[in-house]
Design a protein that fits this description.
DUF1899; Coronin; 474 residues; coiled coil; 35% strand; WD40/YVTN_repeat-like_dom_sf; mainly beta
Length: 474
């Protein structure tokens, strides 16, 4: 018997928006004309780029802080121009990078329980671009390695731990870079550019490994991302302004493995990829739907699954890493859809009758530990992500943060006057009892300092409030 319907455990994935009281309300989402997602999410926080007078700012909200967000809620507001892109560090859930029209990249340390005061001092300011910085992307497996791309057509790869630009790719692109994507182990990047080329680049050798001219012939922006098997998935427009998606093999870019035309809407399609399930979710800016496709080895390779539709158009979209999902509800993706004045989580689930852990839906996924140090990667080493099981759910625990602290400069904030390049990453030391004790002592001292700072801030706040009360009483 010939099988009529392709078998797939994801044919019945369905999306559902959460109830109103679980949305984040009264947020003035940024109106800047830039095709980034405006939202970044991890298992602790959701960050959203917002409208800000006199500079650029973004909100960082603990995931549980739903409901109406007060206008006076503290923001991250150190940039002097609008923020264009933000990205959470995959190896430390309290560290976020931002790129801005002010030509700088800033790396921020968010307090464990969220902001109580607005944050104006970043841990590190990375200066090297001569025009606005529209793209920031952390390395998937090496600690403290951050990529930024600007409208000066330059890609810079930084060692955040020392504040240095270690690689500067300034002669590869002749036109604006629309997006940059790392491959699974961070040895290659792929880029989509305004000159209609898709390039696969080895950043450490600073050379193009593969490129395709006119990957999509239309003039509107393209996107290119790496898949887990090394293929490249692109979205763009045809000459007739129809939206297209395509799959390419970097070893032979002459013809696409698959090319599909979708519709004639003019919003840029932002692809979000889940390497564990091989599903790609396409969210068009200005669309009110999310389409999802499964990538397999059988023709036609890109299989349409379904569409989640709603009434309101999306201004941007955040995508939760796998470790932040609820495995008990068979949740395989969670999006944070930005409206004009709110952020609405959308949950994608695969219905299952059993309450047991569904190991076919949740293979081991990339965990929060870095596989390499920055120096090892710059010296030429590669490593796949360190995987964790989600069988008992993922708990962002204290222990993990302590491990990060020992090696991570981002947890020891420099004084405002110090130059970033004075910061250096502590060297690995033998794992002896004395080292552990020192680390423990450091931790306790830091915690005491943090509590003292909080008390100091609260004292100031109390005295201000008392002054206000005195004025009102008078």
């Amino acid at each position: 018997m010939r099988r009529v319907v392709r078998q797939s455990k994801f044919r019945h994935v369905f999306g559902q928006a959460v109830k109103n009281d679980q949305c984040y309300d009264d947020i003035r989402v940024s109106r800047v004309t830039w095709d980034s997602s405006f939202c970044a999410v991890n298992p602790r926080f959701v960050a959203i780029i917002i409208e800000a007078s006199g500079g650029g700012a973004f909100l960082v909200l603990p995931l549980h802080k739903t409901g109406r967000i007060d206008k006076s809620y503290p923001t991250v507001c150190g940039h002097t121009g609008p923020v264009l892109d933000i990205d959470w560090c995959p190896h430390n859930d309290q560290v976020i990078a931002s790129g801005s029209e002010d030509c700088t990249v800033m790396v921020w340390q968010i307090p464990e329980n969220g902001l109580t005061l607005s944050l104006t001092e970043p841990v590190v300011i990375l200066e090297g671009h001569s025009k606005r910085v529209g793209i920031v992307a952390w390395h998937p497996t090496a600690r403290n390695v951050l990529l930024s791309a600007g409208c000066d057509n330059t890609i810079i790869i930084w060692n955040v731990g020392t504040g240095e630009a270690l690689l500067n790719l300034d002669d590869i692109h002749s036109d604006m870079i629309y997006n940059v994507s790392w491959n699974r182990n961070g040895s290659l990047i792929c880029t989509a550019s305004k000159d209609k080329k898709v390039r696969v680049i080895d950043p450490r050798k600073q050379e193009i490994v593969a490129e395709k001219e006119k990957a999509h012939e239309g003039a509107r922006p393209m996107r290119a991302i790496f898949l887990a098997d090394g293929n490249v998935f692109t979205t763009g427009f045809s000459r007739m302004s129809e939206r297209q998606l395509a799959l390419w093999n970097p070893k032979n870019m002459e013809e696409p493995i698959a090319l599909h035309e979708m519709d004639t809407s003019n919003g840029v399609l932002l692809p979000f990829y889940d390497p564990d399930t091989s599903i790609i979710y396409l969210c068009g800016k200005g669309d009110s739907s999310i389409r999802y496709f499964e990538i397999t080895n059988e023709s036609p390779y890109v299989h349409y699954l379904n569409t989640f539709s709603s009434k309101e158009p999306q201004r941007g979209m955040g995508y939760m890493p796998k470790r932040g999902l609820d495995v008990n509800k068979c949740e395989i993706a969670r999006f944070f859809k930005l409206h004009e004045r709110k952020c609405e989580p959308i949950i994608m689930t695969v219905p299952r009758k059993s309450d047991l852990f569904q190991d076919d839906l949740y293979p081991d996924t990339a965990g929060p530990e870095a596989a390499l140090e920055a120096e090892e990667w710059f010296e030429g080493r590669n490593a796949d992500p360190l995987l964790i099981s989600l069988k008992h759910g993922y708990i962002p625990g204290k222990n993990r943060d302590l491990k990060v602290v020992k090696k991570n400069i981002l947890d020891s904030k420099p004084t405002a006057n110090k130059k970033c390049d004075l910061i250096s990453v502590p060297k690995k030391t033998a794992d002896t009892a004395s080292v552990q004790n020192e680390a423990k002592l450091d931790e306790i001292l830091k915690e005491i300092k943090s509590i003292k700072d909080t008390i100091c801030n609260q004292d100031e706040r109390i005295s201000k409030l008392e002054q206000q009360m005195a004025k009102i009483a008078a």
